[in-house]
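Thread: S-adenosylmethionine complex, take 2
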Amino acid sequence: MKKEIVVLRLGHRPERDKRITTHVGLTARALGASGMFLASDDQKITDNIEEMTGRWGGDFFVRNNVSMTKEIKDWQAQGGKVCHLSMYGINLPDAVPELKKQNKLMIIVGAEKVPGEIYELADWNVAVGNQPHSEVAALAITMDRIAETDPLTVPFENAELTVVPMAKGKKVIHDDELKEKNRQEH
Ligand SMILES: C[S@@+](CC[C@H](N)C(=O)[O-])C[C@H]1O[C@@H](n2cnc3c(N)ncnc32)[C@H](O)[C@@H]1O
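Output below.
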């Protein structure tokens, strides 16, 4: 059964957090999440990430302006579990065995102070080390540690653009060139 991971982003302030919330979404997508719920109203974040997904492939969704408690409760009612990332939680290495067992997991990250209610609603409050750092780093490390297969080697379907990895320089190919390359190879 394929693991389903979604991210719930709390506390986004449109005037301050555009870049970091976009990075939360792009990191979630790059490491294999299916989508991000944004508990604030900033349609531009949705538009930017959807535009990136259109070019770089996969089918990552962003849902703007959700109610955080409703989204958490709906997720749990569908059998999903919720992991809130907070430096005050239990340390990630101790939570990994349980998190790895989950097939339907919501990962919550905050921005400014996270309401106390979230700590109560979450199935786990997990720290990526008990020192303050960044929601993007916390999310990336968690997704990497709980992944079944290496998330950095998974190809993205229906990409318009694909990077050709190389030691020096940059090479990006367009989907029509990729199709032609695959046709010649097979
Ligand atoms: C920059 S922090 C600000 C936290 C805020 N000052 C508070 O007290 O809730 C923003 C988010 O990054 C994540 N974060 C930062 N450090 C973390 C850590 N050590 N472990 C897990 N998550 C962390 C949490 O999701 C947090 O809500």
